[in-house]
Amino acid sequence: MQSDEGEIGRLMRENVAWATAPDPAGSVRRATTEPPWAQALLVGGAIAFLGLFLFVPLFAVFGEALRKGIGAYAEAITQPEARSAIKLTLLTAAVVVPLNLVFGLAAAWLITRFEFRGKNLLTTLIDLPFAVSPVIAGMIYVLMFGSQGWFGEWLGAHHIRIIFAVPGIILATTFVTFPFIARELIPLMEAAGTDEEEAALTLGASGWQMFFRVTLPNVKWGLLYGLVICNARAMGEFGAVSVVSGHIRGLTNTMPLYVEILYNDYQFAASFAVASLLTLLALLTLAAKSVLGRRVARPSSEQPRPERSGKLAA
Amino acid sequence: MKERSRGPNILPGFGLTMGYTIVYLSLIALIPLSTLVLKTTGMGWERFWQVVASPRVIATYRLSIGASLAGALLNSVFGMLVAWTLVRYRFFGRAIVDALVDLPFALPTSVAGITLTAVYSTNGWIGRLLAPAGIKVAFTPLGVIVALTFVGLPFVVRTVQPVLQELEPELEEAAATLGASRLQTFRRVIGPVLLPALLTGFALAFARALGEYGSVVFISGNMPMRTEVVPLLIMTELEQFDYQAATAIALVMLLMSFGMLFLINLLQRWSAGRHAV
After folding, report:
1. Cβ–Cβ of B178/A279 closer than 8 Å?
2. B163/chain A closest Cα distance in angstroms
3. Contacts of B88 in chain A (CB under 8 A)
4. Nearest C-alpha of chain B: how many angstroms from A35?
5. What are the boundaries of each domain within chain B?
6. Which of A81, A203, B103, B260 is 20 to 30 A from B131 (CA-CA)?
7. Do B207 and A232 touch (CB under 8 A)?
């Protein structure tokens, strides 16, 4: 055992040695990192955990999907029922994403550009779907539009179907995904400030001109990021849609629901084949996310804005 | 940015965006959610209590809360480890691992459910290895924990990671020059800084797990009193058209979720306050 002085002296020498060494990966270890064996152990532990819960299941999707060969795989995903599930999933996303895009822009503009009473409450309400179980998200529409629901009788009399039909699926998906774009835009619009928009207005731009030429370009990467995530969730929502769909084959099955139906029919390979398409979508989403995330993190690389740092100092 | 409120605001669109946001939120979320409350108040206190305190319902609360806690705890320990290795070390495939951490956000829960079931059943890739040791995962409460760990996995990593990234190296250097070992530095210097983020991540993972349906329904086996979680029981009641029972159970669950949301807000404010110093 060294004395305390000796220990401190050694640590200081190491630090100085590191600080003056031209190569940080040199032979002397920095005092603020772990020995190589500990690093290997920690990385190994992290990878083992992720392996058990992420990597092995990820590979298993494709392994199970191709278990009966590529022919069976191709057949499973081109079945008429599979095709109608893919179509309904695309349709749902095509309706829900634009709806939530407009909402996200409106809510973000309202929250970042104006002061009003109840603003905090409104911001919290936007997070509401994160706190509500998907099953409850679907159920509230059944309570409203189902045969025993508030509008059930009226809808029945007019032969309008919402529950166990496509409108219900769209409503439930909209509920589950409405926060994503708004939440992505709010911090970005807050950070962008209002100077450029006010300048545009002063120079005679109309409100919409300002919006399309100043506001949107400033947040475009973040907006795209929000769109990608919203789209992934809209295509992948299972719990909420499961409650309102009624599982009518070829009519009200989205892809995640179709995966469940095939699985419960013991058509495992077909189920995993459809699941593998959704997994590919998820992987594409993650790739887009990580590319866009980097763009959002350094938006100033394109347009240097020295005036902002000046304003901060003032 | 607060100085903006002092002068007259020349920006247009207040009325338009306010009206649109309120109408949209009301139609999509507020009015539908209020049906849940109204439906429950219509059923009377006695019936409400009879439903939500029945042994089967209590068993589902116990499993949901217990398994969600276990999953969130697992995620706290290993999420911290993952965040640490991603921020501090350079290893082969780090960027891909970093991106894949978000997979549970992006993967549909039914896909996660069938996959975890396949992997952890007794003839699955991992279940096969556990079976000789007498450990059964699929169709047991352990399987529920596995599924809830999966869905909550990104939260702790993604709350701890940015804090760890912004941590000033000077703190650790000072600790090291004062003679602290790496473990001491971690326990006394780094740990306290990370704590609020860790707790936030834990609460988020717990809240997410509490409401989870898709990934659990396949792996749990859905045995009443044993492997049934709350969202699943709500679903069962709905399928039997017992809407009153479903709404009563759902209302209790909604209150729990709102409690969590409130707690998370407090934690985030605490975390932000600590961060600003």
Report:
1. no
2. 15
3. 33
4. 10
5. 47-108+139-276
6. B103
7. no
Which residue in chain B has the smallest CA separation from A34?
B182
Q: Are B75 and B149 in contact (CB under 8 A)?
A: yes
Instruction: Please judge whether B31 and A144 are an interchain contact, meaning their C-beta atoms are less than 8 angstroms apart.
Output: yes
Read off the pLDDT of residues B195-248 as tens digits, 9 standing for 90 and up.
Answer: 989 999 999 999 999 999 999 999 998 888 889 999 999 999 988 888 889 999
Determine contact, residues A200/A213, Cβ cutoff 8 Å: yes
pLDDT tens figures, B144-186: 999 999 999 999 999 999 999 998 888 888 888 898 888 888 8
Q: Which CATH number fits domain B47-108+139-276: 3.40.50.150, 1.20.1640.10, 1.10.3720.10, 2.60.120.10?
A: 1.10.3720.10
Burial of A253 (0-12, 13-18, 19+ CB in 10 A): buried
Rounded Cα distance between A159 and A174, Å, is 23
Give dist(CA A241, CA A250) in Å, integer.
15
Task: Kindly provide the ipTM of the predicted complex, given to two decimals.
Answer: 0.90
Of A8, A143, A174, Cβ closest to residue B247:
A143
